[in-house]
Amino acid sequence: MALKIGDKIPEILGTDQNGKEWKASDFAGKKLALYFYPKDNTPGCTAEACSLRDGYQDLLNAGFAIVGVSVDSAASHQKFIEKFSLPFPLIADTDKKLVEQFGVWQEKTLAGKKYMGTVRTTFIIDENGIIRHIIEGRNVDTKNHADQLLEITL
Predict the structure, then answer these.
(1) Known catalytic residues?
(2) For residue 1, what pLDDT band results from cuts at 50, 70 and 90?
(3) Does an H or E element contain 146, and which?
């Protein structure tokens, strides 16, 4: 059952590139942009991460915390963070628990072949852990994602 606007997010979010466990309660009193992306070091995912990196201070000033999630390993996330100087954590959802809870693990098609993968989606979560806005799939502007988030008012 996919989470939707108005739902409370689960308490346990997962473990990041350094083995730190993140919980919803870690973000109490802050807006959280929890963004799900398909794969480290791919063009669209790199553009999105770098947009969030470049707009990070503005996002912090607007009260946002940023956390990325993909099914890549912690080691892959560490390399991605180092390569692009990303200032926010990336959750390694290798067991696909979080992508399934949020409903972003879906059937996709590439070159006529069907496969399961993460649909690029950003959940904007309010200070109380409630989903207030969802940007999904092609609606995510990877090159300008930080600006896209700054335009959202909760």
Answers:
(1) 45
(2) low
(3) helix 145-150
**Letter for the amino acid at 7?**
D
The 10s digit of each residue's pLDDT in 56-73 is: 999 999 999 999 999 999
Contact between 52 and 35 under an 8 Å Cβ cutoff? The reply is yes
Tell me how far the alpha carbon of residue 14 is from its chain's centroid: 12
Per-residue pLDDT, averaged over 20-47, amounts to: 96
- Per DSSP, the residues of 46-102 read HHHHHHHHHTHHHHHHTTEEEEEEESS-HHHHHHHHHHHT--S-EEE-TT-HHHHHT
Q: Is 12-150 a domain of CATH 3.40.50.620?
A: no
- 40, amino acid identity: D
The pTM score is: 0.96
